[in-house]
Amino acid sequence: MKLTPDAHSRQDRAHRALMAEIDQNMRDTSAQTARSHLSPPVREALEKVNREDFVPVSRRQDAWNNYPLPIGYNQTISQPFIVALMTELLDLSPADRVLEIGTGSGYQTAILLQLAKEVFSIERIFALYEQAEVRLRPENTPTLHLRCGNGFSGWPEAAPFDAIIVTAAPETIPPALEQQLAENGRLVMPLGIPGLGQVLYRGVKHNGSLIMEAKLDVSFVPLIDNS
Ligand code: SAH
């Protein structure tokens, strides 16, 4: 998208204001999350990826607001603060291989691509999968792997993963995801029933077992098991 200098500075201001709001959200929730600020690489990734490119054209003016937006098919692009927090909780290193369940708009995927060596992302809705291919391929990188399918099964051929992020909520942890997490791997996901309360968890695998810690009340679309 080509912007006039005026539009550029409006966009910059809006982006800076959003980052300040995310910083404030991090501080306000630190008692629950144990993270009071974003680490520099996560902050840089959020500054670099343009959220406007991942929202419907008709909602571009809302791209720098700190709330989720509809992306069609009854799905949403997550709230920027939640994307920031979940990314932070993954504790990614540049050598990590990450599995994402729920590609959706591809925004979170683009952030992960900035921080990890390889990103595997699964989306169950074909049209969203195809759209993410178009959006993310130009930046490609042999480090991106997209698949249309059911995330409940994970991506067994590429396992184990150093980190797994799920951006829709199942009621319980899909066993395949637990199995496909490497030793010392991090799992960040919401659990619960939409409308009845969901909680964001961070899990770590130690000596083969997953220790889960509740972090924050959240609201996600359901992870649908259609296998
Ligand atoms: N990270 C995305 C979130 C999209 S919403 C973004 O910020 O845009 C969650 C996504 O999970 C939806 O696109 C939905 O279609 C997808 N989803 C739901 N159940 C799934 C499943 N079993 N396997 C893969 N994707 C699933």
Helices and strands, with pairings:
Blueprint: H1 5-28, H2 30-33, H3 40-48, E1 69-72, E2 75-77, H4 80-90, E3 97-101, H5 107-115, E4 118-123, H6 126-136, E5 144-148, E6 161-166, H7 175-179, E7 181-192, E8 198-206, E9 209-218
Parallel strand pairs: 3-4, 3-6, 4-5, 6-7
Antiparallel strand pairs: 1-2, 7-8, 8-9
Bound molecules: S-adenosyl-L-homocysteine.
S-adenosyl-L-homocysteine binds at residues 71, 75-78, 101-102, 104-105, 107-108, 122-125, 128, 150-152, 167-168, 221, 223-225.
- The H-and-E topology, N to C, reads as HHHEEHEHEHEEHEEE
Major sheet description? 7 strands, mixed
Strand order of the largest sheet: 5-4-3-6-7-8-9
The CATH superfamily turns out to be Vaccinia Virus protein VP39
CATH architecture: 3-Layer(aba) Sandwich
The hetero molecules present are: S-adenosyl-L-homocysteine
Tally of individual helices: 7
Percent in helix: 25-40%
Indicate the structural class: alpha/beta
Low-confidence stretches: none
How much of the residues is beta strand, in percent? 25-35%
General form: globular
The N- and C-terminal alpha carbons lie at a distance of 38 Å
- Give the averaged pLDDT, no decimals: 94
Number of strands: 9
- CATH topology title: Rossmann fold
Q: Tell me the name of the CATH class.
A: Alpha Beta
Overall tally of structural domains:
1
Gyration radius (Cα, Å) is: 17 Å
Task: Tell me about this structure.
The structure is a single chain. The chain has 227 residues and is an alpha/beta fold. It has a single domain, classed as 3-Layer(aba) Sandwich (Rossmann fold), CATH 3.40.50.150. The chain has 7 helices and 9 strands. Strand 6 (161-166), helix 7 and strand 7 form a beta-alpha-beta unit. The longest helix has 24 residues, at 5-28. The structure holds S-adenosyl-L-homocysteine (SAH). The site of S-adenosyl-L-homocysteine has 25 residues, from strand 2, helix 5 and strand 4.
